[in-house]
Amino acid sequence: MNTWFTADTHFGHKNIIKYTNRPFSTVGEMDEALIANWNARVAPDDDVYHLGDFALNSPGQCRGIIARLNGNIHLIRGNHEEAADACKDLFVWSKNYHELLIDDPDAYQGKQAIMLFHYAMRVWNGSHHGTWSLFGHSHGVLPDDPTMRAIDAGVDVHGLAPISYAEVKAIMARKTWVSPFAEKEK
């Protein structure tokens, strides 16, 4: 079983094609590509953490899309969740934010802490101790800060597909973050 992260799919949202310069002529074409990209990466038993703005369509259309997606989907609510809220029963859970622990032998005490929220933050619980932050909302227009353990997990940044924990870990390893307590800990 793998763990995946994504955000800002905006299923059913015609204007997102124009706003984010997605390479599609129609919303149907976009939805089909997003579903295909998702299912090409995510297996049926995998966990997916969607960091908000799942869909802007009718509850019926949203249910149809969820039924076609692989994985156990956990929803972090974004600012466009009317359709997803009407389909809450199809998600493992729906929350405003979540503090996730991933088993990882390379992490402190074998667990990597990750703060999941729709919006980017400058600090978060545990940020001074190496907790990661994954967010969406900005559709790749927020410049990445190589000194922060935070990344935009949205589809517009990651090839219109979810990214794996291993991919997130590799991105974080390239960052130059140093604990603000490093000198005091010596």
From TrEMBL:
<protein>
    <submittedName>
        <fullName>Phosphoesterase</fullName>
    </submittedName>
</protein>
<dbReference type="InterPro" id="IPR029052">
    <property type="entry name" value="Metallo-depent_PP-like"/>
</dbReference>
